[in-house]
Amino acid sequence: QIFQPLHTLRSAEKELLPGYHQFEWQPALKNVSSSWDVGIIDGLSGWTSSVDDVPADTISRRFRYDVALVSALKDLEEDIMEGLRERGLDDSTCTSGFTVVVKESCDGMGDVSEKHGCGPAVPEKAVRFSFTIMSISIRADGEEDAVTIFQEQKPNSELSCRPLCLMFVDESDHETLTAILGPVVAERKAMLESRLILSVGGLLRSFRFFFRGTGYDEKMVREMEGLEASGSTYVCTLCDSTRAEASQNMVLHSITRSHGENLERYEIWRTNPFSESAEELRDRVKGVSAKPFMETQPTLD
């Protein structure tokens, strides 16, 4: 493998990069360009003005979400075909009904400052947004239950985690994160309402995607859902209990925070319809303060 002419290695490399494989969405994705041969794009795509006076083109680089997912599926092509064979499924009849579960992860990368360089002045913290294909299953025609044909054996390994977006930003900078991850969320939302048509094993097959935001730590969940930071009286990211309540009751908790509800509370915080004092208002919205922009689902990893 190693001693090959450079052009052979180059073309092998190209196949691994997002933007190499043809695919189609049915129906076409809303708000997403129809060209499939997309490489690395400016993470602030659509935002021309710079954020906080940092040149916009230095802030972030990313792949388009659907293009990256296609590349990841093509990477798993052999595993998918192997899975169909192991389950005794005739691959020529399995062209639709594939379900792909994707785990999303996002975390700060600490201090990445250039110690003695003379590049452009950029924030000295970075954030990486990535995803892992957790499982692929298929529901064969006439069958009740779906059959899992691929399961990621090392779901928390660096090797199965695929970077989607790298950005120079502090993970506490809600505005810049919103500017960069907003388009990513829009693409994901569009994909939920559509099916991917992609050639796998020589046949066109259709895939549906489900996304689980289980790769966020508590700080990032609070950031993405617009909750007060970890020192807040409201200790839980999934329910409204305060520190005092939580210390009294360690058992009976129900998940009461949903993305939709957090959005409603943000609106109350913003408009203050009952003309309450800051303290009363805070008590009403239970620690929601900044606008949430990403739907995180309370599912355990």
From TrEMBL:
Gene Ontology CC: DNA recombinase complex; endodeoxyribonuclease complex; nucleus
Start and end residues of each V(D)J recombination-activating protein 1 pre-RNase H domain: 24-96
V(D)J recombination-activating protein 1 RNase H domain span: 100-232
GO molecular function, one term: ubiquitin protein ligase activity
Biological process according to GO: adaptive immune response; B cell differentiation; chromatin organization; T cell differentiation in thymus; V(D)J recombination
Every V(D)J recombination-activating protein 1 DNA-binding domain range: 1-23
Transmembrane parts of this sequence: none
Domain named V(D)J recombination-activating protein 1 ZnC2: residues: 234-296
Protein name per Swiss-Prot or TrEMBL: RAG-1
Organism of this sequence: Pangio anguillaris (Eel loach)
